[in-house]
Design a protein that fits this description.
Structural class of chain B: alpha/beta
Distance between the termini of chain B: 43 Å
Strand order of the largest sheet of chain B: 3-1-4-6-5
Distance between the termini of chain A: 20 Å
Order of helices and strands of chain B: HEEHEEEEEEHH
Structural class of chain A: alpha+beta
Number of helices of chain B: 4
Radius of gyration of chain A: 17 Å
Shape of chain A: globular
Strand content of chain B: 15-25%
Helix content of chain B: 10-25%
Largest sheet of chain A: 10 strands, mixed
Helix content of chain A: 10-25%
Shape of chain B: globular
Strand content of chain A: 35-45%
Largest interface: A-B, 55 and 55 residues
Radius of gyration of chain B: 16 Å
Number of helices of chain A: 4
Oligomer: heterodimer
Number of strands of chain A: 14
């Protein structure tokens, strides 16, 4: 990481804790809204820890959102569904790790013609600029602070998703691919 | 997990997204155009809360109290009726795809109307009755969380201030009463 990037990240690290006191983990900086992938933050990690420990740090713009329906997983009513959303991140900067052009990220919540899922986490919207922190272990990539979503590069440069839900793979999601275009 | 519990805010605020949000999430004040229930009176039930860590609170009791609060809005026909039988609204423990939130509400639609709803409370977090002096104060007040989620059942989105729909309740704190704004929204949507 070069000096300029380090300074930039440190500057953000100063701003973000102040905002976090209010419960925010999004920060306005240079007239841009920075939204940090919040799994790490919600698990108690500081921005500094995330910067130090993440293997990949991506800054990018959300360019597309595609929601799909998945089973709720309720044993009481197997027909119940909710929505999850694939977010396409057009990568502008790579602070750590090997650069890629585009990252498709899976998150809870979304809306289809059959279901509207609302969650109480950080909301993403097309057009937002986001930071995403990923960790890597043995070629598998995960959002910092969570074991629920992982990515794995294939030889073709495609990263397949292995999302787990209640510790079980969801077939619909396994059939989809998270594309991490190099 | 303990780190999560210690986190000052888990219902992370979406409200600060005001500056860039162009979707319905941002301007939830009216929620006009959002789908509504075909009828204002619906049954709800409590499914399994297995795996949910609780302190001095029975989840379904807290959920029923929250429902009573919404039911108490006098100039609205909105009414949630507890049942152990078949009901369109379910509350249960359920893990979420993301780690950053304690609860999620999914409203199922049919012909533009809400026909079913499932609220899941994430067992990655702990819940308490924060009005109980013996509560640890480091968990989420179940009744307050449910009050908020039951707003989502109505398809009301997040607010910025003076509302139970503000997403950002600290652990160990309560918001068990409705704000004037919440009452106004409910009365407008379900007169």
């Amino acid at each position: 990481m070069n000096k300029k990037i380090i300074i930039s990240l440190l500057a953000l690290a100063v701003i973000i804790p102040a905002v976090s006191i209010l419960g925010f983990d999004t920060v306005q900086h240079d007239n841009r809204l920075y939204t940090h992938s919040s799994a790490g933050i919600s698990s108690g990690a500081s921005i500094e820890e995330m910067v130090d420990n993440a293997d990949y740090i991506v800054e990018g713009k959300l360019t597309n959102a595609k929601s799909i329906e998945v089973p709720m997983g309720s044993s009481e009513d197997p027909l119940r569904i909710k929505a999850v959303t694939y977010w396409t991140i057009q990568v502008d900067k790579f602070y750590k790790g090997e650069p890629v052009k585009e990252l498709v990220f899976l998150r809870a919540g979304g809306e289809t013609s059959k279901v509207v899922s609302t969650f109480d986490g950080l909301q993403w919207n097309v057009g937002d600029t986001v930071f995403v922190y990923l960790t890597e272990k043995d070629g598998t990539f995960k959002q910092y602070g969570t074991d629920k979503i992982s990515f794995k590069f294939t030889e073709s440069g495609i990263a397949e998703a292995y999302p787990l839900w209640n510790s079980k793979p969801i077939e619909q999601l396994r059939e989809e691919q998270i594309v991490l275009t190099k | 997990m303990n780190n999560k519990i210690a986190t000052k805010t888990v219902l992370i605020l979406s409200v600060i997204m005001i500056g860039t949000m162009g979707t319905t999430q941002a301007f939830a004040w009216h929620d006009w155009g959002e789908p509504t229930w075909a009828t204002a009176s619906n049954g709800f039930k409590c499914n399994s809360f297995s795996g949910l860590t609780t302190h001095y609170v029975t989840p379904c009791t807290a959920i029923r109290s929250a429902a009573s609060t919404w039911n108490g809005v006098s100039d609205s026909s909105w009414s949630l009726v507890y049942t152990t039988g078949t009901a369109p609204i379910h509350h249960e423990a359920g893990e979420s795809l993301d780690d950053d939130h304690v609860a999620e509400t999914a409203n199922m639609l049919q012909n533009g109307k809400i026909v079913g709803s499932t609220v899941t409370y994430d067992p990655d977090y702990c819940f308490e009755d924060s009005a109980n002096a013996n509560s640890p104060g480091t968990c989420h007040d179940m009744q307050s969380i449910s009050l908020h989620e039951q707003g989502h059942i109505q398809e009301v989105h997040h607010e910025w201030w003076n509302s139970v729909m503000v997403s950002g309740l600290n652990v160990g704190t309560q918001q068990r009463t409705l704000f004037t704004h919440d009452v106004d929204v409910l009365e407008a949507r379900y007169p």
